[in-house]
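Request: Mind sharing a record?
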Amino acid sequence: MFFNLKSAFLVGLAATAYASPILPVDPLAPQNIEARSIEARAQAKDVDCGGRQFTAQDIKSTIAASKTAQDKQYKDSSYKFPKPYGNGEKFFNSPSQLYEYPLMSPTFTGKGKYEIYRVIMNENYNYMGSLYHTSDMSNSFHKCVNVEDQEKEAKKNEKEEQKDDKKAGKGKGGKKGH
């Protein structure tokens, strides 16, 4: 008639597990473990790399070209890219190996001259971000900025300046007291 504490706990645990099973949104959908990875991935958006702009399509084409070049690299050692990116500046928080590939328009094919701009991706070809080499001799990188984020920041700064102007009496009314 009386339950002991252990039995009550086990019954409660079983009831909780039965009442709230963990299921995917669509149980019939194929399960892609890669897509559910907790590693942060960036959306390919238009970027500004120190004044040079690239489109999201440029980035997607670059990643596709890196896959092709990677396949060719096994047969022909003259392909220099994709190559491991060391992440010395700690721009990306990734547990997996990162790779760099030249970001150009038209797309770099794996051989020939390349510029200072790079797409960074993980070992599964997921886009992590874009960088460009600095002009000094340090061989370091700067992170490219999403154009959309840059525009939002400019609008935010403009609104703040307008607020400051109104507070200082420089708003629409002109000078006060005249």
Observations:
- The domain at 39-152 is CATH 3.10.450.30 (Nuclear Transport Factor 2; Chain: A,).
- The first helix runs from residue 5 to 19.
- The chain has three helices and eight strands.
